[in-house]
Design goal:
- The protein is of the alpha+beta class.
- The chain has a domain of 151 residues.
- 43% of the residues lie in helices and 26% in strands.
- The protein has 6 helices and 8 strands, in the order βββααααβββαββα.
- The strands form 2 sheets. A 5-stranded mixed sheet has the order 4-5-6-7-8, with helices on both faces.
- A hairpin with a 2-residue loop joins strand 5 and strand 6.
- The protein is globular.
- The chain starts with 17 loop residues before the first strand and ends with a helix.
- The model has no long low-confidence stretch (mean pLDDT 89).
């Protein structure tokens, strides 16, 4: 059975936020003219790299790069597939192995998660927190009756909750930006994830933890501006 996409509802007049390159840095330019780093840039610069560096050392730099590149390819294909579903276009995986795989992974996210999305407000929606940061969320809308930020992720193998702190920070960051600019009160977010072997996982930022993750995110923003801004 082919599921139908959730209805698109234009609740907000979303502002245009442009991606720009300034001295080799990827920044976003908001309507107020401020040029701010992306959420992913801030997370990347303030991340504890111990585990990642140990992994690169273990598998070798070349192999690590290959794994990362391949994962990015599958991730992009899965995102594109989900986007086509959400805007009501036909999903054509073709015969390319990456796209066939991405289509199966997208199926998992559609049947496990997108069936519970009541309204779509924005797809690949650029958001910004004035003067502080910007970024793009995969989906913003209503999930199981509540306004929420939603992101799609692919993974080579299933992840444990304690490994994915950055996901909660990302969701909190986008919710804060949406609330600040559009006067909403989004207090939850969801990461819909599928692994290569088609195991579905979901990580939920609950309203009860929202403040905690907002505070943790603001610590990372502060760290970025104090120590990594150059």
């Amino acid at each position: 059975m082919e599921l139908t996409p959730p209805p698109y509802v234009e609740r907000y007049q979303y502002h245009t936020v442009k991606q720009i390159n300034l001295e080799g840095k990827r920044l976003y330019e908001a309507p107020d003219g401020s040029k701010t780093p992306s959420v992913t840039t801030i997370l990347g610069k303030t991340k504890d790299m111990t585990h990642l560096n140990a992994w690169k050392k273990r598998v070798g730099e070349e192999q690590a790069q290959q794994i990362v590149t391949e994962a990015a390819g599958v991730g992009t294909a899965m995102h594109n597939n989900l986007e086509r579903f959400l805007i009501g276009e036909e999903r054509k995986p073709g015969n390319n192995l990456v796209h066939v795989q991405a289509n199966k992974m997208a199926d998992q996210i559609i049947t496990n998660a997108l069936c519970d999305v009541d309204e779509i407000w924005g797809i690949e929606q650029a958001l910004y927190y004035p003067q502080m940061y910007s970024g793009t969320t995969d989906l913003v809308g209503v999930y199981k009756g509540q306004p929420a930020i939603m992101d799609f992720k692919q993974t080579n193998k299933p992840k444990k909750k304690e490994w994915v702190e950055d996901y909660y920070l990302q969701l909190a960051a986008y919710a804060m930006a949406h609330n600040a600019v559009y006067g909403t009160e989004i207090k939850e977010g969801h990461v819909f994830m599928c692994s290569r072997d088609l195991q579905y996982q979901q990580f939920d930022l609950e309203p009860s933890d929202f403040e905690h993750w907002c505070n943790e995110w603001l610590k990372r923003v502060e760290d970025y501006y104090i120590n990594h801004h150059n």
